[in-house]
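2024-03-11 09:14:02 INFO queue: dequeued item Phosphoesterase, len=496
2024-03-11 09:14:02 INFO validating residues
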Amino acid sequence: MREDSERSQVSRRQLVKYAGVGATLAAASPLVGGGAARAHDKGEHTGAPHGNPRDRAWRAGDHHIHSEYSGDYDTSTNPPTFVKGADAVYPIVTNAIMAKNFGLTWAMCTDHGGPNHSKVNLEQAYPDLLLSRRLVPEVLQFWGMEFDAPAMDHHTLMIPRHDDEAKMLHDLESKFAKNEPYPADKGRDTEAKMIEFLSYAKHMPHKPLVIAHHAARSASGWGVWGQDTPHEFRNNQDTAPDIYVGFEGAPGHQAGPLNGGARGGYGNYPTHGGFDQMTARVGGLWDSLLGEGRRWWITATSDSHVHWTRGGSDFWPGEYSKTYVNARQDYGDIMDALRTGRIFVTTGDLITGLDVTARGQGRAASVGESITLSRRNRTDVEIEIRFRPLPGANHNGDRPQVRRVDLIVGQVTGPVTNRDADTNPTTRVVARFGPRDWRRQGDEYVIRHTLRNVETDLYARVRGTSTDEAEPLADGLESPWSDLWFYSNPVFVTVR
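2024-03-11 09:14:37 INFO prediction written
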């Protein structure tokens, strides 16, 4: 969203309140120089994920945050001159400080592109990121951008942590971002160009991650798709399945109703319980993709530009939405969790942990994983759900309570013939659980349910809510704090 100049000025004054410490440290500290990142910084590993999986824990983060490098352009010059702080207003270090304050251990600034923005990222934003890493080492801060994807809406483009990360982003942005050329080049805004980008990226020695943002924001109705379409998701993932891995289940801008706006900025067709219709509809597009056996994951982000208390539509990173990954506090392992689906998402800190496990024939798998069962022995599959509620108050001063947990199961039937298919008729809520159905073990609640005589490939996923809505209703101007949900990513069961 674009904020007017008066609002930006007000938001800049707020930095004195929210980022005085960061600004003072930034002024006093020498700039971390050059293009190479420092491998000795906390948690920064350049190789493949390693270590003992038992050291992993649920770690909250946000991969869609904007800084003052989401700016504007003075087109009276040629090439246009970049103007900081015209769209989003906070320095990178401010976002890191606030992410730490609201319980995040990893984060990523994803600034908009534009004419020659690859040079802005390389020469201005990246040195500020290096400084922020030094000033706020408790938050692992990834490098990347909000990629203006050819023929589509915005996407996270997350760069793996390595010494040439700045050059890697410059290479991809300068070659493929559709808003990079000036004057505009229509050839940069085609589905073919998006495929070219992914084909190029998958052959890089360090593979990035690409996740679609607010995918149904341009949809004009229930299942009437706009800028992002089902066949594009399928084509893109088929091109680079370990790079193009999912979309935001819960988009940012969730504070919109607090200032009279739409939740998520979804002005054409609303979110449901704060979640994009592609995710919120049982048997909808997400389930259609999972029904093909695709490893397709959802996340939840802030898309923070300007805080709602200063006229924006946003919460701070981690204040309302969180993407939890099961990982070590390590750049490589966090990125591996995002790539392989060890993820759950929540709003309003309704929960702080969620484990979903499928067990059968002596085997077990958790979210993002798969177990393979023998068809010769018709078997039951036990689903165990463990969730940890927030022990105190959330950032609105509320003590949210989980009122219901749903177990959702769909069949995996293989590739579809219609590339724009957006339903999975086999998917349904197989069980609903209330407080009488779970039992406490320490700081967790445990639910168990048995799927009888499993003979077909399937996936299971879980959602829960603080409401009494059987299905998440279309959002209006209700406070987002009164309408909280969490979602797991799926666990797969294969029968052979």
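2024-03-11 09:14:37 INFO annotate: The first helix runs from residue 5 to 18.
2024-03-11 09:14:38 INFO item closed
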